[in-house]
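Worked Example 4.2. Consider the chain below.
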Amino acid sequence: MNQGQQYSDEDIQRLQQLSLQGDQHESNYNAPTMFNSDNFDNLIKWQLDIKEELSRIEHLLRKHVPKLDSKGEMYYAEPTKEAELFNETGVNEIMNILAWYLNKNIILSNFDEKEIKQRCLQFHIYLTDFIFMNYQRFGLTDKEKIKHFPMVVMNITNTVEAAYSRALNGGERDSLRTARQVMQTEPISNPYGMPMQQQGQGNSKSLWKPWTW
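Applying the procedure from the previous section yields the following structure tokens:
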């Protein structure tokens, strides 16, 4: 464009229309796909976020009852005093212990099968002893409540073992690394079989976007 060149209103409207058409064409090639970096970040968060699992365990320990309100939304109702298993102290103590085992540091570690079995057996023994030595303080004050004790320990141990199993030979790290490599190297094709450019790598220029000149 020569310096000082002027455009009429009709020319400007035509250029705006062409620019919008170019932006629409570009957006078709930058549509979100399974290899989009945002989707990959969401995958990482979903795989490593164990808050939902910890929340579920806490509800189970508290013997919360899932119910639906008038709007059809689920909520957890407090159990009756008779149905309560662990008291507040017992729930908090067990959840504090689980926080050391159900976290991304464990999931992203690298353990062999023998080490996982040793760690889970050690956890099972220590948890059993810990609850047994504090059963009255934790609210297990009658025979009916004590009957739940072995099942609770077994289920918690199984949950911890599942977390360790994700770290078997660094499996979780390898799966995330593989997913990232696929996202970076796999060509994306449009419905006509033509390669599509990754978002942010396009060469399209727009009159109204100086950073693309």
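Strands lie at 65-68, 74-77, 188-189, 195-196. Residues 25-35 have pLDDT under 50 and may be disordered. Compare this with Example 4.1 before moving on.
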